[in-house]
Amino acid sequence: MTKKITVALLALGLLAYACQPDQDPPQIQSLAHTEWEVTGYLTASASAMHSSPIRYKLAFLSDSTFLLKLDANVLTGKFAYGSDGSFQILETKKTKDCCDNEYALEMEVIFKSATEFIIRQDRSTLMGDGELYLRRK
């Protein structure tokens, strides 16, 4: 009798486990219509952060397009962002390939190489060949 009750309880437990609804997939935080200000960057070879000399602006126009204001130029393009924080630049266009200062050029290199976007409320970090620090506007 005890064996029958044990087997029945085990079967009920397995049935209850199998009937649980699937967990919802993690929600991707939308970047659409958000603006960020670059506060600084850290290159892979540097030991200290370089603070931003001016207020460079990064705007996510939709969940797949961006605009990064440099000194004299604007970098636009497409990106992909995953629920795990993965980030990838898919395509870029730049108004001209001249006239930006060294800071803006280094920032552009880090941005284009980004593979991870860590968002913490109003401050975030784009990580690739260095780190780009952002503050939500």
From TrEMBL:
Segment forming the signal sequence: 1-18
Origin superkingdom: Bacteria
Keywords: Signal
Protein name: DUF306 domain-containing protein
Organism of derivation: Lunatimonas lonarensis
